[in-house]
């Protein structure tokens, strides 16, 4: 690569490097945490196979629309309400939030508490809605 190009376009080069590093971190970080990411296809399969759908968003977010049959426990309450989920320790759990960040944290908490098969919904409810999958307010 030409050094003059790098000097003239250092901001573009820096942006490309940072973007690539963020993508790599996202990919590696998910696998290092021991939590499998479920894209909308995998999430749909889990939904259809009667996995527990755990929504960790806040009350108002959940009330505005959620995946049918989802159990609602806000992330801030999860540690104190973990016992409610004990019957699901050996069953698949799909954890969702708005975009996949809070649910990733919840997945790590569940794994640490001994839940065996935990999936983070990649993209959260946003990805679910973009795929035109069912959402309810009931």
Describe this structure in words.
By secondary structure, the protein is an alpha/beta fold. The protein has two domains: 1-32; 35-130, 3-Layer(aba) Sandwich (Oxidized Rhodanese, domain 1). The protein is 51% helix and 12% strand. Helix 4 (59-64) links the parallel strand 2 (52-55) and strand 3. The protein is elongated. The termini are far apart. The model has no long low-confidence stretch (mean pLDDT 89).
Task: Please provide a brief summary of the model.
The protein is of the alpha/beta class. It has helices at 3-8, 10-32, 40-48, 59-64, 75-81, 101-112, 124-130, and strands at 36-38, 52-55, 71-72, 93-96, 118-121.
Task: Describe the structure using short key phrases.
single chain; 138 residues; alpha/beta; Oxidized Rhodanese, domain 1; five-stranded parallel sheet; elongated
Instruction: Assign the CATH superfamily of the largest domain.
Output: Rhodanese-like domain
The number of domains is 2
CATH architecture of the largest domain: 3-Layer(aba) Sandwich
* Secondary structure tally: strands: 5
Name the quaternary structure: single chain
The helix content is 40-55%
Number of helices: 7
Radius of gyration (CA) equals: 18 Å
Specify the CATH class of the largest domain: Alpha Beta
Structural class: alpha/beta
Strand line-up across the major sheet: 1-5-4-2-3
Order of secondary-structure elements = HHEHEHEHEHEH
CATH topology of the largest domain: Oxidized Rhodanese, domain 1
The overall average pLDDT, rounded, is 89
Low-confidence stretches: none
């Amino acid at each position: 690569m030409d050094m003059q190009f790098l000097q003239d376009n250092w901001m573009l080069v820096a942006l490309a490097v940072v973007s690539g590093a963020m993508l790599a971190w996202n990919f590696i970080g998910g696998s290092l945490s021991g939590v499998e990411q479920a894209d909308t296809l995998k999430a749909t399969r889990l939904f259809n196979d009667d996995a527990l759908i755990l929504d960790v968003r806040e009350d108002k977010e959940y009330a505005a629309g959620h995946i049918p049959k989802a159990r609602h426990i806000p992330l801030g309450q999860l540690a104190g309400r973990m016992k409610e989920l004990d019957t699901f320790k050996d069953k698949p759990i799909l954890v969702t939030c708005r975009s996949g960040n809070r649910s990733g944290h919840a997945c790590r908490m569940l794994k640490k508490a001994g839940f065996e098969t935990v999936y983070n919904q990649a993209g959260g409810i946003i990805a679910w809605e973009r795929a035109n999958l069912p959402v309810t307010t009931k």
